[in-house]
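INTERNAL TRANSFER SHEET
From: sequence group
To: structure group
Subject: FAD-binding dehydrogenase

Please process the attached sequence and return the structure record in the designated field. Keep the field labels unchanged so the import script can parse them.
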Amino acid sequence: MQQTKKEKYFSDVAIIGGGLAGIVAALDLLDADRNVIIIDRDSRERFGGLAKLSFGGIFMVNTPVQRRNGIKDNTSLAFSDWNSTAEFGSKDLLPKAWAEAYVHNSLNDIYYYLTKHSVGFFPVVHWVERGLHQPGNSVPRFHMVWGTGHSLIETLAQKLLHHKNLNRLGIVFDARVKSLTRTNGRIDGCIAQETKTGRELIFKADHVVIASGGIAGNLMQVRKHWPKHLGQTPETLLNGSHPFAMGDLHAQAQKFGAQVTHLDKMWNYAAGVHHPNPKMENHGLSLVPPKSALWLDSNGERIGPQPLVTGFDTRFLVEQVCKQKEKYSWQVMNWKIAVKELAVSGSEFNDEIRNKNLIGFLKTVWFGNEGLVKLLTNECVDFVIANSVGELAEKMNQLAGRNSVRPEVLEKTIRAYDDRIDRGKSFRNDDQLRRIAQLREYRGDRVRTCNFQKILDPKAKPLIAIREFILTRKSMGGLQTDLRSRVLDTKGKVIPGLYAVGEAAGFGGGGIHGKGALEGTFLGGCVLTSRFAVRSILENL
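Return from structure group:
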């Protein structure tokens, strides 16, 4: 990177955004002896974006980890599962092509790429998004990074910052890109402003890569593009994304004719709670809901007729909550269930995994995570705890600010479920119990799922109720790109010099996931789209 007195910076490639996608692109470019500059809106301490806060699960197909676990997977099955979940429309040609490219390239371009860079994975593959009414993941594919997303980013960032070609790398933090620049029909840079000084910075490059994320951190944009089939946007919507996932660069690229698609396709979660120590407005946490808890509506009645159980179809859970009159829900459980099954999605509240404390992690697997439950019941406003159903209903009403939960209704709901457990294995005619039985057949779920635990078991008290809201996470639409990650205009033509990767590109093609994701495809999509972009760039440098 060369700096002039006019605050102009010159490089072969300018990357806008310092998240996972931006870091991967920079690494590959340095490997190819190219000059790179990263312009990141965030601070140096938060380098890595949302991926650093993630759980670190990555969807990959036919990996050595799967084979060691006896999991028989192949690209044909994975692509079939992807299509079943995505429900692509007739015009989704590029998203579907990207989906096919993902499943065929995940082994070499994601798994072997990451392991080459010293990223390690759990020995057991997690099985999520199994599908509810149609196929989801037919086999386990969710590969958890040992150390969570925090380790994923730290490992790659260290590779970047200690690269043999470090002299070819420049990183500018705390700088917000305000506009792209174009000369003779080609995007050739961008103009940014330092957030602390207000000073203007000019960047010139042969190629510009947008890696700035999506719109899920901008609740105004989320409400603007809210999916019509979900009805009116919930009154309370929590932000589980990144505060700088604002969609700014979508708008800037559109000024140069870029096509933005599928912004109404979102990956939100149904079990969001208010962050005990918020870092931004409406900051939320995404819970991994206990499978043995009862999922109830605002009146304390079981949502149905099909009970809600996590692990099968996240989109279905969100849709069912949004169908309720009050678009929030409750989960009711006891202390034993919470300790065994409750988790938070992300690196922040998973200390043992994030810190690679194997002994500590194994203890939480076998004995549960009582520390987490104590922290959340003490510090999260959405948790209430009681020794009786009547007391629980009273506290739920106090929290909600309305007397909508009637104690007798709540008790009837809970006892009906407990009674079905009491009837014995052959007579448990309840879909939630059938799904728990299915989950416990896989060893990765059995150790974290109670063995048909009754809620009103006196030995398992106190009772816990958790108020849960819809929480934003990822926007699945974005800048439309071809299979070389080049941004396309509204006529389908390449905009010279401009690339988009990761969430900014809808993780590939402007909407690689269609209507629903198989999970783990977000981090994987960041890696894949960036590697494809760099290959295209190197052909033209």
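Handover comment: The domain at 7-212+247-265+476-539 is CATH 3.50.50.60 (FAD/NAD(P)-binding domain). The radius of gyration is 24 Å.
Transfer complete.
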